[in-house]
Amino acid sequence: MSARNSAQGSPKSTPQPQIEVREDPQAEPEFEPIRPEEDHNVIFKPNAGPQTEFLAAGEREVLYGGAAGGGKSYAMLADPLRFMGHPSFSGLLLRHTNEELRELVWKSQEMYPKIWPGIKWSERKMQWTAPSGARLWFSYLDRDDDVLRYQGQAFSWIGFDELTQWHTPFAWDYMRSRLRSTAPDLPVYMRATTNPGGPGHAWVKKMFIDPSPPGSAFNATDIESGKTLAYPKGHSKEGQALFKRKFIPAMLVDNPHLYDAGDYEAMLLSLPEHQRKQLLEGNWDVAEGAAFPEFNRQVHVTEPFDIPNNWVKFRACDYGYGSYSAVVWIACTPDEQLIVYRELYVSKVLATDLADMVLELEADDGNIKYGVLDSSCWHKRGDTGPSLAEQMIQKGCRWRPSDRSAGSRVSGKNEMHRRLQVDEYTEEPRLIFFNTCTNLIAQLPIIPLDKKNPEDIDTKSEDHLYDALRYGIMSRPRFSIWDYDPTHQRTSSFVPADNTFGY
Question: What's the pLDDT score for residue 430?
Fold first, then answer.
C-alpha cells in the first residue's frame, strides 16, 4: 500500500497490508520502487565521477581542471548553490575580464531560478539573492589592483573560473584573506576551474598539480619553497598544516552529454599537438613553446627502487646564492640509461653549507664516483682566497668543472632531447626520474625555448635544476651505434677520472 493511499483513511479503519515473505531472496519485488529522476523535476544532476567529486570535496582549496569539455563551468556554478539556503552565506564568483564574466552570468540566469524559486538577480549589483538572504556576487579581476575593491569584505565562498588566466598568484593569495565565516555551521571554501595552458599555467601547476597525485588531498604548500604552510612557532597549533588542497582532473569523456555527440572531440583532435595534449588529454606537462615536449610523466617518471651496487653514481650542481642552488644525483645502468634518483633545491645557502648538505645526503649512498660543478665556481676574483669550488672540495665535497666551451649549451640540450626519446631497441627512454625529484619533474616540461635562439632554452626561466642535469648528462655522453662492434660488445669506455679534480 502506498503512502498516498494510506493517507486517505483513518489508520484504525484501514486494513493493514499483508506482507508476503518470499523464500527466494533473488526474486523480484512485488512493485517497482519510486525513481526520483522520473517523478521529480531534476534541474541539475552532476555527472558521475570528477564533477560529483568536486561538489562533494571538503578541502579548503580545490582545483577542478584538465581537458576542455569536462563540465567545469556548470560545476562551478552549482557549487555555491549548496549553501544558498543559509542566511549567512556570502559568495563571490570571479572571471579575469568582464567580457568572460558575461557567459557565466547567462548560464546562471538560465539555471538558478529553476533550482531556487524566488531567487533574484540584480544587474546593477551583479548579485543573486536567495529567499534565505544568502548572496552570491559575480565580478572580475583583470588587474592586481582590483583586489582593493574587496578590502574590508568577507566571503565564505570564493570561486575563480579559468584560474590560469591570472598571470600571477597575487589575486588568489589576496582573496584568501577575504575568506571568513561568522556562522559555525558554514564552512569556508575557495574553488577554481581551469584548463592547462594560459599565462598562469606555471604557478597553478606548482600550487595544485605538482605537490600530489590527482584526486589526493594534500597539505597546502608554499609554491616557492615547497614547504608545508603551517602554524608558526609559539602558536597553540605549532607545526600543524594550515589547510588542505586537492586537484580533481576532468576529461571530456567525463561529460557524456558532450562526449557522446563526437563533434567536440573531433574539433579537439584537429588542434596542434601541444594544444591537443592540453585540452583533450588534460596534460599539465605540456606548454606552448616548451623546450622539451618529449617529456611525459607516464614514460619518464618511476617509483624509487634500490640502485644496484655495480651502477655508477655521480652528481652535478648548479650553484647560486641569490637564486637557487640545484644538485642532482644520477645513476648510470650498465647499458647507459641514466636514472635521476635524488635532487636538492635550496636558496641562499653558502657554498660550504651546501657541501655539508650534499655530504649528509650521501652518507648512506655508497661510493659517488665523481661530481660536476658549474665551471664559474672555479673562478677567482683577485685576492679573495680560494674559489667556491675549492671551498667545497676542502670540506670533502669533491668536484670537476662542467663543460662551458663554445656550443656546450646547445650540445647539452640536444643530448637531453636524445635521452628523452624512447629508444627503438629497448623501448625505453635513456633518461628517467624517480618521482621523489618533484622540483625537477615540475620544471623540466615547462622550460621555454629562447625566442631569439630556439636552439637554446630561455635562460630567464627557472633553469637551475635543468643546468645541473645538463652538466651531469654531458659528463657521460650517450654511446652511439658506432661504439659497438659486430658482436655487440663495447669498443670504448668512459674517460678515467682525473685526480686533479678529486674524483
Answer: 92
Q: Is there a single domain that holds both residue 214 and residue 303?
A: no
Q: Which of 95, 105, 89, 97 is nearest to 154 (CA)?
A: 89
Q: What CA–CA distance (Å, rounded) separates 267 from 142?
A: 29
Residue at grid coordinates 549553501: 83
Residue reference for cell 589592483: 145
Characterize 439-448 residue by residue with b for buried, 16 or more Cβ atoms within 10 angstroms of its Cβ, and e for exposed: bbbbbbbbbb
Provide the pairing of β-strand 127-129 with 135-140: antiparallel
Q: In this predicted structure, which of 176-190, 349-363, 464-478, 488-502 has the lowest mean pLDDT?
A: 488-502
Is the pLDDT reported for residue 342 higher than 80? yes
- Same domain flag for 303 and 246: no
Q: How far is CA 366 from the centre of its chain?
A: 33
Q: What is the pLDDT of residue 253?
A: 65
Asked whether residue 381 falls in the same domain as residue 494, the answer is yes
What is the percentage of the chain residues whose pLDDT exceeds 90? 44
Put simply, whether the predicted model's pTM sits higher than 0.70 gets the answer no
Contact (CB, 8 A) for 355 and 395:
yes
* Virtual torsion, Cα 379, 382, 388, 391, nearest 10 deg: 130
491 lies in a domain? yes
Whether residues 419 and 360 share a domain: the answer is yes
Give the largest Cα separation in the chain, rounded. Answer: 110
Among 473, 218, 244, 441, which Cα is nearest to 345's? Answer: 441
Q: Is the pLDDT of residue 68 over 90?
A: no
Closest by CA to 94, choosing from 147, 132, 41, 133, is 147
The average pLDDT across 65-77 equals 79
Tell me: do 217 and 170 sit in the same domain: yes
- Cα–Cα distance, 64 to 486 (Å, whole number): 55
What is the domain count for the chain? 2
- Ranked by mean pLDDT, the top range of 255-264, 310-319, 438-447 is 310-319
196 is written with which cell numbers? Answer: 592547462
**Average pLDDT score, the chain:** 81
* Residues 11/17/18/21 CA torsion (nearest 10 deg): -110
Q: Which three cell numbers stand for residue 377?
A: 665556481
The Cα–Cα gap between 341 and 436 comes to 8
Residues 269 and 310 reside in one and the same domain: no
Quick count: other Cβ atoms within 10 Å of Cβ 53? Answer: 19
Q: Alpha carbon 476 to chain centroid distance?
A: 32
Q: In what order do the strands lie in the sheet with 312-318?
A: 301-302, 431-434, 338-346, 325-332, 312-318, 370-373, 400-401
Alpha helices in 32-159 (DSSP H): 36-39, 50-56, 72-78, 98-115
pLDDT in tens, 437-461: 988 998 888 788 877 787 888 777 7
Q: Which domain holds residue 409?
A: 297-501
214 confidence band (pLDDT: 50, 70, 90): confident
Give the H or E element holding residue 92. strand 90-95
Q: In the structure grid, which three cell numbers stand for residue 204, read together? A: 597553478
